[in-house]
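Practice problem: predict the structure.
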Amino acid sequence: MTDLSLTTPLAAGDSRAATATWRDWLQLLKPRVMTLVVFTGAVGLAVAPGAVALHPILAVVAVLCIAVGAGASGCINMWYDRDIDRIMARTRSRPLPRGLVSPGDALTFGVLLSVGAVVLMALAVNLTAAAILALASAFYVFVYTMWLKRRTPQNIVIGGAAGAFPPLIGWAAATGAIEPVPLVLFAIIFLWTPPHFWALGLYRSGEYARAGVPMMPVVAGERATKRQMLAYTLLLLPLAPLPAVLGVGGWVYGAGAVVLGLLFVICAIRVLREDGAATGHRAARQMFGYSILYLFALFTLLLLGSFGGV
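Answer:
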């Protein structure tokens, strides 16, 4: 359990805590992660059958709410994880470990943004989208961050559901309903998440071990992790083209999903065969980079195929 009284290297009242710039506050929202979340949510909205009937301003508001809600969850995650963020090289430059923003201010900022995003979605768009947004935020904060992350190597598997909600939120914003296609999109991101994060975990396992985070490579070892990464990419391979079968994306998306999926499997095979100690986990690093490209490309094809009518 995290010590909630834990302070950053600077005391909460230190004068340097007042030197935070707008960039530091923006960094609390995890903008790089938020970009992918917002994109998948926007595509979910755009390809929904009710999107053409939704006023453009309301569509923008819906996407804004997804962005703010995701960023707010990331901010609360940084508040809770500030002790381990200070230990890991990947995260120690964040505003909280550096003492640029006090823990109390970060928590207040995140909670206000989260509540505001849900309320605005409910008032301006519809209650279904607002309810799913609230569920996604609560799942990320309470289930993943506070419960799973420090307790089980399945943290990413179960917690990955939080990052899979955006297309479902976007679709619900346009239609007010939960239907098979957005559920498939949810499942795609859910299965994509473990190999994506475990690729990172393979070459950052030492940092996770020092921070006491039971990531799969730390607990189960590299070989077992690599096998599971391959298993998830194989499960993803037939699932990703399914929206085309359900009438969204057309053959452009369907064919592209197969090609992208095969490349993802090849990446996983390369990681499985790699001696990470000898290569510096080069294949794992490449798979992590490709996994981001995979999801962006997949949803781009879904968007192009839907509007291209092919």
